[in-house]
Every structure is written in structure tokens, then in C-alpha cells.
Amino acid sequence: MKKNHKALWDNCLHLIRQNVSEQSFKTWFEPIVFESYNEQDKTVLVQVPSPYVYEYLEQNFVQVMGWALRMSFQTNVRLTYRLVTDKEHKLTQDVESERPADIDAPQPTTRANKAPDVLDAAVPQDLNPQLDPRKTFDNFIEGDSNKLPRTVGLSIAEHPGKSTFNPFFIFGPSGCGKTHLINAIGVQTKKLYFRKRVLYVSARLFQVQFTDAVRQNTVNDFINFYQSIDVLIVDDIQEWATSPRTLDTFFHIFDHLFRLGKQIVLASDRPPVDLDGVKDRLLTRFSCGLIAELERPNMQLCIDILNSKCRRDGLKIPADVIQFIAQTANGSVRDLEGVLNSLMAYSIVYNSNIDMRLAERVIKRAVKVDNHPLTIDDILEKVCQHYNVTQQSVFSKSRKRDLVQVRQVSMYLAQKYTKMPASRIGQLIGGRDHSTVLHSCAAIEQRLKIDRKFSDELGSIENSFKLKE
């Protein structure tokens, strides 16, 4: 009687489900589609939705999969993955599993062998690259102000760690596209080399992780984890200028990666020579690769960016309105995006065409036109007004969820728009310490990545104090 190989595969999934978390099973195993079983070669062919899923399975579940296959098929079998590389054109690629399936049953989970969190072990493990898939080279419009950094960034993504552009240090003013470019480098690298361990991290989040490692006495694990990265991308490193312990720790990580030929990409709002508080031994390393300035986009590039975003979002905006926005957005890509998002929202809500009158109304509310620096009092006033709470309640010791969110948002915006250190921000917002500020900022950053509604809400608050009439 001919065996029902699909049933054997289903039994294999059943065994796997008993040995992994429910979330892991739903995320990584439910999307797998059984294709066929070759009796002669003893090979199971399954389809997975992307190369990334294949990489994740091979790195993290090869043992349990091999054991489950052997138990179900009662023989040692090999896996072949059919990777969907282009859904639109239905293109696939077959890749054999690199390891044989004849392995032992999974061990009971203990503290010694359980899957670690991102900083809980020195050995390579599953890694979320923390990249924004929307920020790619395809939508990073080239112009005179960014041609060199963009060209070099693309070259690094194609040959990470193998060029003279290591480290690659990008600097420029806020809103010029630094975060987009370094994200694009990571996304393109992962696309071309999906086995490489690529990680994007903000300087603030790195500091939070380091603070936690110090508190938990796991600094060695922290360092070993970062030393296992193939392409390390760090944003806003100027925030470490007043954190000597963080800088000393990063020095050891940097030195290790550099000696192994791993790619390092750094972004800052100023060049290395202006990073006060950073020791010479690290400054010389920042400067030994390539330093590239990302300037504010000129008028023509702003127009090209706006036209590109209009095509992407299906917006129809008259040429004179496009030109007006480009002239008044202060050369900030972030302001351009904010104006377009506001125009789209107004147009939908009020069922009106996007014209010069609407553009002038939105620009007035969305673009900062003066040079007076924001204070923490300014930020607290607007945040409390938005959430309809008093500053006294924010300063209290209450752990109510709503008040915790208001505190975190206030600390995040204070860190973003003022030059005060975290310790000073904490003192001014209820007498908290610097670690509370760092954790609050990290929590807001993580939420912004996954909660579009919250992102829009935060944008609304920012728009309320970007303009002082």
C-alpha cells in the first residue's frame, strides 16, 4: 500500500508543535507547504514563502525538524526548500538543507539549553535585523546632495566588509535621510546575503541594552553577541558622547568586528572630529574608512522626492503645489513626508482636492519656521494637552498605564528635541533616573515600529510644537 506522504508530513508538524512554542509554530511552520517526497532520494520538498524563512528554520529549528522527519518517515531524510523569491512572477528557487536530518530527539528545555533572548548568549542565534523594510534604495531618491553616500552605501551592501569603505561613517543634519540610507544598506545586504547576521540598532537602544547587561552582570554576553554580527549598523552615535562606559564597550566590539573584516556602518548628526567626549582611539577608528556627508536636499531633489512619493501613494498634486512644498519644507525629507501625509489626510477627511490653499494651511501647522529651541516645559505642555492630563499627575509616582505612556512620550520627545542628557531629563520629568529615561525612549521606539496609529498620534503631537507662531 502506497504511503500517504502528506499525512506523514502532517504528523511531522504535529511532533514539531509539541516541541516549540505556539507562537513559533504559527509564525514559522504553518506557512510551510508540503510539495512532495522522493522515495529514491529520501528527500522531502517543502515550499517556504521567502528566503528569510528558510534561513530562520535552518538556523534555529534544524534539530527538531530533523528529529520529527525521522520519527514520521521512519528513515533518515533530507529537506529541500522551495523558496518563493518573487511572488508577483511566481519565481522559486530550490535549496537543499545544509545539514542531515539524522539527529537525536530534542532535549528537554532547561536554563542551560533554552533559546536565549537577543543578549542572553554568546553563540549565534536567531536575529531580527530590526530593519524597516520600507526604507530601501529603490525609494531613496538620488540627487547632488546624497550621490556619494548613496553610491558607497549600495557598494557596501553588494560587498559587505570587502571594500575600503569600512567603517562607513555618515553624518548630516536631522531630516536629511541618514536613517533611510543606513536602513537601505541593511535591507539590500540581507536581500543579497540572507545568511549574514545584519543588525540595525539606535545608539539609545544599544545603551539601554548595555545598562541592562551591567545591572544583570551579563556584560560579557552582551559583548559576545555584538561581536557575532556580520553587518552592524548604529544610528545617532552622537548620543554616546556623555557615556564613557558605553563608548569603551563599543570600542571592544568595534575592534573585534573590524579585525575580522565585518562591516560597520555608523550615522551621526556631526562628523567624528566634532564628537566631544569620544576618545581619540575610537575617533581614529571611525575615520579610517570613509566619512561621507549627507546634505539637506536641494530644491530639485525635494521636488523629485515629492513626485516619487505621490506616485507611490497614488496622490495627484498640482506642480505648483509640489514646488511650494519643496520651497517651504526647509530641505528636510522628514518634513516633506509629514506635509504629504497631512495633505492626504485632509483631502480624505474633507473630501477636497489638494490645492495651494490646503497646502498653505498644512504647511503652517506642519513645518517649523523659527529657530527658537524647544524646552522640556514646551514639550510637557503639548503632551499633557494632547492626553488631557496635568503635569502634576505626570510627575507623580502613579503607575497607571495612561500616565506611564504620557511620561514615556514626554521623555522620548525631550531626548529627541533637546540636547539635555538623560539624567537631566529624568530629573525634570518627575525626578526619574537616567535608566528610566533610556528605557522609556526604547519602549517608544519599539512601539513606533509596529503601531501605525500610535506613530500618527505622536506625529500629531510633534506637529503641535514644531511651529511657534
What does the model show?
With 469 residues, this protein is of the alpha/beta class. 51% of the residues lie in helices and 11% in strands. It is built from 20 helices and 9 strands. The strands form 2 sheets. It has a 5-stranded parallel sheet, with helices on both faces. Strand 1 and strand 2 form a beta hairpin. Helix 5 (147-158) packs parallel to helix 6 and helix 7 (203-216) packs antiparallel against helix 8 (219-226). It is globular, with a radius of gyration of 25 Å. It starts with a helix and ends with a helix. Mean pLDDT is 81; it is low at 100-125.
**What summary fits the major beta sheet?**
5 strands, parallel
Query: Major sheet: order of its strands?
Result: 6-7-8-5-9
| Low-pLDDT runs | 100-125
Number of strands: 9
Helical region count?
A: 20
Distance between the termini: 83 Å
Following the backbone from N to C, one meets helices and strands in this order, namely: HHEEHHEEHEHEHHEHEHEHHHHHHHHHH
- Helices and strands: which structural class? alpha/beta
Shape: globular
Indicate the percent of residues in helices: 40-55%
The amount of beta strand, in percent, is 5-15%
What keywords describe this structure?
alpha/beta; five-stranded parallel β-sheet; four-stranded mixed β-sheet; 20 helices; globular
Characterize this entry briefly.
With 469 residues, the chain is of the alpha/beta class. Helices cover 51% and strands 11% of the residues. Strand 3 (78-86) and strand 4 (91-96) form a beta hairpin.
